[in-house]
Write a structure and sequence with these properties.
By secondary structure, the protein is mostly beta strands. Helices cover 10% and strands 32% of the residues. A hairpin with a 2-residue loop joins strand 1 and strand 2. The two termini are 26 Å apart. Bound molecules: calcium ion (3 copies).
């Protein structure tokens, strides 16, 4: 992460030039006097909206660690970057959506989003009305709806922290196709009444929902009239319903999720041809209420345990049977070295390219999960980890030091 150098900021001679409604500065980072800084053209603004209104496509706008009292609309393809989700925040006025994205290709990063109204009115923390945007490392609290996008594709919603203490809310709602929701954490205190929906996919297709952590909700993942989606590697714990399929849902693939102590782990309201496993030998989901799990033979009928229960697990339903044919015998955990964007349950050269892109690209496509990429277990990702991965791919050297193991 790039750290702002405040000493440098004040030491550099400040050159004020009025331009496009803002101040031209030389070599500046955001500061108390320059809370909104267009790093592409070195211009300061006092409000985020003023900076957006003056921005050109591709600009990077950085925010100081403070609270901005605004509701903003982003109608140009920019990156809007705070210092950290807990130190830079946008506080809406509670009468409309806090952030509305209408341009395609916008990135919002490292921000808190607050002031989304009340729990009787549908306002959004971030409303996305375009394609190919990225929302990453935001903290969204006390919103009726955290993040919403309807009918668009290519949006990435990852590594956000979404919470509320209200008695109703919807965390992330997505329709459209080819969107990704991953690495997000949804928090409600265990002492609260379980209410709300963490993730809703609504008439969506080809949505990848993975590595999210969802606790203490009424519905963790709610699939409504949505087909051909992939829901995998999520941890779903202490909810009323872990995953709920309602209306016509076909050909959704649900696997490698850990279902832990949900009142109803999974439920499908109508019969549908959904797949609750990833086949043999990859496996299905871990169900902590699967009391019939024994593992003495592998799923290719050889005589050795393979981490997959030897009998299927029945999903509660109204209609024809749904089964996880290959339920996991233990909780799924990330595979060391498997760090590509859509985990394929194999360590291969995709992982190498993905890790290289993370280390030497813009850092937005963080390895998933980060612990799996830390192959020498140092707590940081460096070229040394790449070297170990390459050695494994070329020579079969075991990945023994991984933090995930
Ligand atoms: Ca087995
Ligand atoms: Ca892989
Ligand atoms: Ca490392």
């Amino acid at each position: 992460m790039r750290l702002f150098n405040f000493n440098k900021c004040f030491a550099v001679g400040v050159i004020f030039m009025l331009s496009c409604g803002g101040f031209m500065l030389s070599g500046q980072y955001p500061s108390p006097s320059c809370p909104v800084y267009n790093a592409t053209d070195s211009t300061c603004y006092q409000t985020i909206q003023a900076a957006i209104d003056a921005a050109s496509s591709g600009d990077l706008i950085k925010l100081y660690s403070t609270t901005f009292y605004e509701n903003i609309t982003i109608d140009v393809s920019i990156t809007l970057e705070g210092y950290h989700m807990f130190s830079t925040s946008i506080q809406g006025d509670c009468t409309e959506d806090v952030v509305t994205i209408t341009a395609a290709g916008v990135t919002i990063k490292s921000l808190g989003i607050l002031g989304c109204g009340n729990n009787n009115t549908v306002y959004h923390g971030i409303k996305i009305e375009s394609a190919n945007n990225t929302v990453v490392d935001t903290m969204i609290a006390e919103c009726y709806r955290g993040i919403y996008t309807s009918g668009y594709s290519g949006n990435i919603i990852r590594d956000n922290l979404i919470s509320t203490t209200w008695d109703y809310y919807e965390g992330i709602i997505v329709s459209g196709s080819n969107n990704k929701i991953y690495g997000n954490t949804f928090i409600r205190a265990a002492t609260e009444t379980r209410v709300g929906w963490a993730i809703i996919i609504l008439s969506a297709s080809n949505t990848d929902i993975y590595q999210n952590s969802i606790r203490n909700h009424e519905y963790a993942i709610y699939v409504f009239a949505a087909s051909n989606n992939n829901i995998f590697a999520n941890t779903i714990e202490d909810n009323d319903y872990g995953i709920y399929l309602f209306s016509t849902c076909e050909d959704n693939k649900i696997h490698h999720n850990n279902f832990l102590d949900n009142d109803i782990q999974a439920y499908t309201y109508y019969a549908g041809t959904n797949q609750w496993d990833n086949g043999c030998p990859s496996g299905g989901n871990y169900w902590d209420n699967n009391t019939n799990c024994t593992d003495v033979s592998d799923c290719n009928a050889q005589q050795s345990p393979d981490g997959i229960c030897d009998s299927s697990f029945s999903i509660p339903y109204d209609g024809t049977a749904n089964y996880d044919n290959y339920p996991l015998a233990a909780q799924w955990s990330p595979m060391c070295g498997n760090v590509d964007g859509s985990p394929d349950y194999a360590v291969n050269w995709d992982d190498y390219y993905y890790l290289i892109e993370y280390l030497y690209g813009d850092g937005l496509n963080a390895p998933v999960p980060p612990c799996a990429a830390d192959m020498n277990c140092t707590g940081t990702l460096t070229i040394a980890d790449v070297s170990i991965l390459v050695d494994h791919l070329n020579n079969g050297t075991p990945l023994t030091g991984c933090c995930c193991q």
